Amino acid sequence: MFMSVFFELVEIRTKLASIFPYFIGLLFSLYYFGQVNWFNMCLFFIGMFVFDMATTAINNLMDYLKAKDDSYQQLTNIIGKAGLEVSKVRNMIIAMITFSSVIGLWLVFRTSLLLLPMGGLCFLIGIFYTFGPVPLSRMPLGELFSGVTMGFGIFFITLYLNIYDTGFLSLNFLNGQFLLSGNIKELIVSVWASIPMMFTIANIMLANNLCDLDQDILNHRYTLPFYIGRKQGVYLFDLLMYSCYIVIVLGVLVGIYHWSMLVVLLTFPIVKKNVSLFNQKQEKATTFSVAIKNLVLFNGSQIIGLLLGLLLRK
């Protein structure tokens, strides 16, 4: 009983948003850079997954505490529905963040001090995404921060943990001075390869905010669709999704990916159908899942494309 409530509190079904950047980063590291540090990967996966659960629990806790609508608090939020004690939820969140922090520091010790600001920034954004007097999720910044932190942050840290010793990006200290150096081409390639994850993850937040627009306004939560309007929000949803295909095709043309990555194009008819369905109606119960389905389809096909690239390149 406890585990089922806990899994609902941390919304275990939504963890795909962090798992895909991790696995794509791992495979891209193996395909493009030719190396993987498996022990670092195991440590990072555990720490990342637990921290992702903690941020979701923070989100549910803050939504419960700040809800202006009693029906939302008692009937919709898991804390109200399950009758959870706020103090116990707080203790679970603190335990998960502490555990993730210890793993993060261990990885810093195993790699480089440069990982500390990278991971620390992701930690701060993850915590203050829903925590504090003015959380990022209640501002027109949620899509930006969720997409960049998870789509780029997880992907980039995964790469760094595998290739930190190659000169990809390094921080050196000498005679009281520090020198930050890196390979510009490889950094640009890494950013480019992260764009589809950034866009598909941002679209989950955008779809959620579009579906909850009326409820959010009632609860004084003014997200991006409130400022740009529902129509423009839907247009942005379409633009982000379709741009992912352009990124992959251009990546193949300039040599970032093997031609096998064009397998993602096979998902286009289904994704287009899903996008059209969402354009007609933005409703949590019926069409919000479109954003998750598109993320799974597109990023799942990326994994297949990278695996094929590894096999066909040999």
Automatic annotation (TrEMBL):
This is 1,4-dihydroxy-2-naphthoate polyprenyltransferase. The chain crosses the membrane at residues 12-32, 38-58, 91-109, 115-132, 144-164, 184-206, 239-271, 291-312. It comes from the Bacteria. GO terms for cellular component: membrane. InterPro entries: UbiA_prenyltransferase, UBIAD1. The keyword Transport does not apply. It is a multi-pass membrane protein. GO terms for biological process: menaquinone biosynthetic process; vitamin K biosynthetic process. It holds the Pfam family UbiA. One of its GO terms (molecular function) is prenyltransferase activity. The keyword Transferase applies. It is found in: Membrane. Keywords: Membrane, Transferase, Transmembrane, Transmembrane helix.
